[in-house]
From TrEMBL:
Pfam families, sorted: HTH_IclR, IclR_C
Keyword Transcription: yes
UniProt GO MF annotations: DNA binding; DNA-binding transcription factor activity
Protein name: Helix-turn-helix domain-containing protein
Tagged with keyword Transcription regulation: yes
Residue ranges occupied by any IclR-ED domain in the UniProt entry: 87-269
Signal peptide extent: none
Keyword annotations: DNA-binding, Transcription, Transcription regulation
PANTHER family: HELIX-TURN-HELIX TRANSCRIPTIONAL REGULATOR, ICLR FAMILY, HTH-TYPE TRANSCRIPTIONAL REGULATOR RV1719
Any one GO biological process: negative regulation of DNA-templated transcription
InterPro entries found in the cross-reference section: GAF-like_dom_sf (IPR029016), HTH_MetabolicPath_Reg (IPR050707), Tscrpt_reg_IclR_C (IPR014757), Tscrpt_reg_IclR_N (IPR005471), WH-like_DNA-bd_sf (IPR036388), WH_DNA-bd_sf (IPR036390)
Length: 288
């Protein structure tokens, strides 16, 4: 492979021994880090800009940039500016493809369950329904009856509405066409109301199942995005309406949003993520 051949050249011929010491490695990684962030032009960084940002003289930079260019971790534009190379994309893709969604989510779900005191779920979407793929029970003596593998309609659940808010409109149309029978007196059963609800979800950055799927149960959910900015999962916190009500809804939403954002960043989602609208401390409000 070209990559292996290039690495051999770096190890054996292209680099003097001095370049293999830890100081040089840290400096080279610093260059990659600087090129990862936004630049003034938006098209990479010039040698002068990198020198200023990193506090290195230009001769040192050139010496370190050469092997990075050899293995295509860095590329040089026609105007002389430097940017991340195609091998950086390859390495990033290899990292992302190795991520297990449940494994990455579990510590986040555990923290969220401990913070809110409620049952927390990780869900995925398919064919107008959401599927529970992970569940962490909160410390309360009253527990949700949900199980990993259970499915629920998208139109009447917080997580389902979260997906419909960020998926292509064809999914919304398919859900409406399949019918939206009432599951409780609070279920949204018309396309117009559901469309208004999805717009509000996009504005707030989270969804609420306001006793729409099960009697006496309220749920809050937020989206999880992948490295392409596409929704791939949703995180939710569910509990009795007697515990999740009033300002506590906003507090739980704040905590769920933070958890979903943490997982999105872990999956390489582009920044900025959705703006946070709830400025309530969940640790104070959720315990009221």
């Amino acid at each position: 492979m070209k990559w292996s051949f290039a690495m051999q050249n770096i190890g054996n011929e292209a680099l003097p021994v001095k370049r293999n010491d830890s100081s040089s490695l840290r400096k080279a990684l610093g260059i990659l880090g600087a090129l990862t962030g936004p630049t003034a032009s938006g098209h990479g960084g010039s040698l002068s800009e990198l020198s200023l940002v990193l506090g290195m003289n230009k001769s040192t930079l050139l010496r370190l940039l050469e092997p990075l260019r050899d293995v295509q971790l860095v590329e040089q534009n026609r105007d002389g500016r430097y940017r991340l190379g195609v091998m950086a994309v390859t390495l990033g893709g290899a990292y992302l493809s190795g991520l297990d969604l449940r494994e990455q989510a579990r510590p986040i779900l555990e923290r969220l369950a401990a913070k809110t005191g409620e049952t927390v779920h990780l869900l995925v979407y398919g064919d107008g329904q959401v599927t529970y793929i992970e569940k962490i029970a909160g410390p309360s003596s009253i527990q949700m009856a949900s199980r990993v593998g259970d499915r629920a309609p998208a139109y009447c659940t917080a997580s389902g509405k979260t997906f419909l808010a960020y998926l292509p409109s064809s999914e919304f149309e398919a859900v409406v066409a399949a019918g939206m029978p009432a599951r409780t007196p609070h279920t949204i059963t018309t396309a117009t109301r559901l469309l208004d609800e999805l717009e509000a979800i996009r504005e707030a950055g989270y969804a609420v199942d306001d006793i729409e799927n099960e009697l006496d149960i309220r749920c809050v959910s937020a989206p999880v995005f992948d490295h392409n900015g596409h929704i791939v999962a949703a995180i939710s916190a569910s509990g009795p309406e007697t515990r999740i009500h009033g300002t506590i809804v906003a507090a739980v939403a704040h905590a769920v949003r933070n958890g979903a954002d943490d997982l999105s960043l872990r999956l390489g989602a582009p920044q900025p993520l959705l703006p946070v609208h709830a400025n309530i401390d969940p640790e104070q409000e959720a315990t009221k």
